[in-house]
Amino acid sequence: GIHLWECKSTQCAKTPGRGCMLCVQVQCWSYFYSNTTMDWEQARAWCQEHYTDMVAIQNQEEIGHLNTWLPKKATYYWIGIRKINGTWTWVGTNKSLTTEATNWAKGEPNNGMNGKILGDSEDCVEMYIKRSSQPGKWNDERCKKMKTALCYTAACQKDSCVYGECVETINSHRCQCFEGFYGDKCQHAVQCNKSELTLPPKGSVVCTDKYGNFTFDSLCQYSCEEGYKLSKPEPLRCTATKNWSHPPPTCEGSWKILPPPQKKQSNFTSCIRVLISCCSFSLALQPSSAPLFST
Ligand SMILES: [Ca+2]
User: Does domain 2-154 correspond to CATH entry 3.30.420.10?
Assistant: First the structure.
């Protein structure tokens, strides 16, 4: 069975079918708890199946809120912290617990007096809700113990926004789109004008798209027929303002690309070559030019 939060506080706002939300600044969560007890592993699986995950305590305000509104249970509640390789870790984010964030009850974590009490290590964390002493504080416990699961649901889900950041708002969320995207889920990329991709004489263009034809971050590479050179070699990019990064280039002039010289010649050799070619040129001219100088 599933218990929905009972809304009694002004901090809470009722959402049909979703329980109740606690909103701290712009962040909102709905809390849920099981009406049966389970071990820590089962509790986490139950939370992940029905909600987002086991609770991760954000601040003292949240602790106060949970302690005020959750019913007292004899075995208390499992929360989303576990000892992993000797370090207390928030299981939802896989981040280690900082000293400032800890909320241990007096004398805890004691690891069951290092096994002296129960012969087993205490690697999971419970929260003392409505306990007569140390209410809202944490205790390390053996993971196989049976306790109530405490879960939360964030309004923002993994797939809430396709190309944007999800921002929690009171009772809901909205998508803040990344540059170049729009739509309620930021699912659309802005489009650039295809007709602006004019072809210059002797030129052609090929476009590659990331998000769709002629949309944000599409790249259009121009090329020229052999012997012609682009006035600007960089491809045109469709920008977030729906404009191409620059106008289409032109294909310019006759820029025959000659193969590089095969051997480096010394100045001496090339000098002789020039002389030889001069001689053969004048010799070749001799017969036809001869009459001009025959006097
Ligand atoms: Ca303990």
Answer: no
Q: Please list the ranges in the chain whose pLDDT falls under 70.
A: 1-29, 58, 114-119, 168-172, 254-295
Q: Ion ligand 1 — residues with CB under 5 Å?
A: 108, 110, 122, 139-140
Compute the distance from residue 94 Cα to the ligand 1 centre, in Å: 22
What's the pLDDT score for residue 126? 97
Give me the pLDDT at residue 117, please.
Answer: 63
CA distance readout (Å), 35 to 1, 3, 129, 219:
6, 7, 15, 56
Cα 135 to ligand 1 centre (Å): 15
Q: What pLDDT does 206 receive?
A: 97
For residue 261, the 8-state DSSP code is P
Question: What is the predicted pLDDT for the residue at 70?
Answer: 87
- pTM recorded for the entire structure: 0.52
In angstroms, what is the span from residue 89 Cα to ligand 1's centroid?
A: 16
Query: Where along the chain do the CATH 2.10.70.10 domains lie?
Result: 190-258
Topology of 190-258 in CATH? Complement Module; domain 1 (2.10.70)
Tokens of 9: 């506080």
Residue 61 CB: number of other CB atoms within 10 A? 11
